[in-house]
Amino acid sequence: MLISKFNSTQCVNGCKIFDDESDYLYWENRTVTNDEIDVLDFLNSNKANKKLVVLHIGIGNSFLASKLNNFKEILGITISQNELMHAASKNISNYKYFFLNKYKANSLDFFKNKKFDIIIDINMKSFSCCNKAFMSLFDQYVKSLKDNGYIISHINGLKWSRTVKPKLAFSFENFFHKKLKEYDGPIDNILNISDCELLANQNNLKLDLTFKDLVIFRNEK
């Protein structure tokens, strides 16, 4: 099962990548998640210094960036234009943010020549279109890690498989509006600890499960 989950098979009908920069409501006004609080607790417990560069995949309400102003630089990506506008309203000096689906072909250009101390991706495979795309993405993560850098995910996010589609919605706060709605995704996108151990071994990383429900891949060089 592990071998089939991480083989290079591409989507039968081709990868369908969300890439719509319209003003859809998404996570920008939602409350902070326990997953992000766990990540912040971990970073605070390790007394991360001002020289570290962080990549945050899926910026949501920019809570993490607002709490990491002691870092050298926070780079964030999102598939939501509204999340970008919300990030801009925060006026965080060390924070840069970009519209980018991590599975899009041009993500290779984003990662090119960039090195990160920390990559945070809570929902690491949740929105993957196929195994080939996920393995290519994880390979980019590993190549973009500095020596002794690490990739942080969370057990809750690893158990969460979703797809995103735009829809028209109504609320008394926003009346009729466009939003991104999440639906159940393919079961192959759910990862367990055994899967993570295999990923770590295949990429010469050390798997660290010692802090709460975080899943940390360490590049110990």
Query: How many H/I helices?
Result: 8
Q: Work out the radius of gyration.
A: 17 Å
The termini sit apart by 30 Å
The total of beta strands comes to 9
Oligomer: single chain
* Count of distinct structural domains: 1
> The biggest beta sheet, please?
7 strands, mixed
- Widest sheet: strand ordering: 3-2-1-4-5-9-8
Structural class, from secondary structure content? alpha/beta
Which fold name is given in CATH as the topology? Rossmann fold
CATH superfamily: Vaccinia Virus protein VP39
Q: What proportion strand? A: 25-35%
CATH class categorisation: Alpha Beta
State the low-pLDDT regions, or none.
Answer: none
What gross morphology would you assign? Answer: globular
Q: Mean of the pLDDT scores?
A: 85
The H/E string reads HHEHEHEHEHEHEEHEE
What proportion of the residues is helical, as a percent range?
25-40%
Name the CATH architecture: 3-Layer(aba) Sandwich
What does this structure look like?
The chain has 221 residues and is of the alpha/beta class. The protein has one domain (24-218): Vaccinia Virus protein VP39 (Rossmann fold). The protein is 29% helix and 27% strand. The chain contains eight helices and nine strands. The strands form two sheets. A seven-stranded mixed sheet has the order 3-2-1-4-5-9-8, with helices on both faces. It is globular, with a radius of gyration of 17 Å. The mean pLDDT is 85.
